[in-house]
Amino acid sequence: MTTVATMIPHSRPAIDQEALRVVVDVLSSRHIAQGACVERFEHEMAAYFGLQGGVAVSSGTAALELALRALKIGAGDEVIMPSYVCAAPWLATQRVGAQATLVDIDPDTFNIDPFAAGLAITEKTRAIIVPHLFGLPADLAALEKLGVPLIEDCAQTLGAMEQGRSVGTVGRLTVCSFYATKLLCAGEGGMVLSDDASLLERVRSLREYDGAPVLDPSSFNFKLTDLQAALGLSQLGRLSAFHERRQFLAATYREILSSKTVICPNVPPGRTHGYYRFVIRVPSMQAKPDGLMNLIGQLEQQGIHCRKPVFRPLHRYLDMPGFPRSDEADRTALSIPLYPDLTGDEVGQIVQSLGKVLG
Q1: Which pLDDT tens digit goes with each residue over 317-343?
Q2: Fold annotation for 17-236
């Protein structure tokens, strides 16, 4: 395959001079491991959500595992989650010894279907992991009514609203990810947040083992560094501006793509979209098993790096039937570049290339 010399990447972190300065300041201090900067990051993230506190950890996946352990979920317990999601919720559930119960998604939002989740509840169900995919909140109002503790996965949805309340303030626990491509980038890292002080203390005790009065086999080294926290804090200060830019770019895409043979992201009433990803649907790919990957290859030849927003639904890894909506998303959903540093010229090139390959 021949590709152009300059590619527009699918993701690109927004790193400015202030971010470089704060990281250099931490290096100059010679205290680069978990310390005062991590503590400040925890405090400011909790304030951002309006929650009592947070515990910074090494990744979003670690945050999910510690959230499950804080709820004392383990062998014999069941955790409901959507199939159309990255592997992290399933992996975290496996690590605590519980059983992952997969359900299908709402076809209009890509998020977990509350009705399907309700049907999956058994006497062994201990929690529902609720990923808010691509920047759009799941239907928290409906999920709340199921009466099962919710773990909100806000890795892709910081700052979005559902029914007038901030995503991340509804579940018993909330988890975040600060991976390099996320809305708030620290390179790697994650956080568990809650209004329940006892749950936060449990997470904190499991994050590290040094200084513990007893040996706890569940404890591990899940600490964040001050280097990462400093970068995260600088990004948190710019998050409002990031959101404004994402909204502008999304509106631009909607205006230009409205006449194309694609479907732009749906935003149900009462919800706002944070546009971590701009995921379009390409209905013509539904009947073509390899159609989406071929389309991605053609766009790469045009200098545009696009992706399937979920590499592979969980039920496909596990060879499980019965997830038609996740299968449809797997065949038709395409994530095109959208991030604060994306330029107007790049948007024009992306749309022009989509027009070429879609005819």
Answers
A1: 999 999 999 999 999 999 999 999 999
A2: Aspartate Aminotransferase; domain 2 (3.40.640)
Positions of CATH 3.40.640.10 in the chain: 17-236
CATH class of the domain whose range is 239-358: alpha beta
Q: Dig out the tokens for 204 from the structure.
A: 């904190």
Pairwise CA distance, residues 27 & 180, whole Å: 19
Q: Which helix (H) or strand (E) holds 177?
A: strand 173-177
Instruction: Check residues 137 and 261 and name the one with the higher pLDDT.
Output: 137
Question: Which positions ≥6 away from 29 have C-beta within 8 Å?
Answer: 226
Q: What is the pTM of this model?
A: 0.96
Residue type for position 156: Q
Read off the pLDDT of residues 46-59 as tens digits, 9 standing for 90 and up: 999 999 999 999 99
SS3 state of residue 336: strand
Q: How far apart are CA 120 and CA 82, in angstroms?
A: 11
Pairing, β 125-131 against β 150-153:
parallel
Contact (CB, 8 A) for 42 and 194 = no
Q: Would you state the pLDDT for residue 4?
A: 54
